[in-house]
Write a structure and sequence with these properties.
globular; Arc Repressor Mutant, subunit A; Rna Polymerase Sigma Factor, Chain: A; 2 domains; 8 helices; about 0% strand; mainly alpha; about 75% helix; single chain; about 180 residues
């Protein structure tokens, strides 16, 4: 990938190819962050699209502040998640649709698709048992591949606090997944 700063500079100048490269680089990471936070694959896809639409609309106002471009995208995604959860809490509870059966670059092997959807559903159920801060750390660290330092900067916490949250979240996930698979 070309230098991130160069791509952002070009995207700010309305270079569609540069923005497309940024989109391709970060779409999956932002999607995984959102799906872990809200627990719905379909909603996460829509929200990820909204994140990039907002980014495209406001990229001209982006300024480098010592953090990577992805930090800005995660802030937009975080705000989308907060808005979504706020609106969802005002709506009456509706049973959520089962996870979509999607090809996800696999051959159309029903067993692989089913196993993927089951494991995703199990992970989402386990993640619902974590605290909000634990979900945030797990989402940023593992689904978005950010370093401890980047997560600490995004969450406004020390690296030690992030490591402690990560450890407690992993322990809680292991317990929840054991219950899920053995229960």
């Amino acid at each position: 990938m070309q230098g991130e700063e160069e791509l952002v500079r070009r995207a700010k100048e309305h270079d569609q190819a540069a923005f497309s490269r940024l989109y391709e680089e970060y779409f999956d990471k932002i999607y995984r962050y959102i799906v872990i936070k809200i627990g719905s694959q379909t909603e996460a896809e829509d929200m990820t699209q909204q994140v990039f639409l907002k980014a495209l609309q406001s990229i001209s106002s982006f300024k480098w502040q010592g953090a990577p471009f992805s930090s800005w995208l995660y802030r937009i995604a975080h705000n989308q998640v907060v808005d979504y959860l706020r609106k969802k809490s005002k709506r009456p509870a509706i049973e959520e649709d089962p996870p979509d059966i999607k090809d996800n670059n696999r051959k159309s092997d029903p067993q692989q698709i089913t196993e993927h959807n089951l494991s995703m559903e199990q992970m989402l159920n386990a993640a619902r048992q974590l605290t909000a801060a634990q979900r945030e750390v797990i989402s940023l660290r593992f689904t978005s591949d950010l370093s401890t330092a980047e997560v600490a900067r995004l969450m406004g916490k020390s690296q030690g606090a992030i490591k402690a949250l990560q450890h407690s979240a992993i322990v809680a996930l292991r317990k929840a997944l054991l219950v899920e698979t053995n229960g």
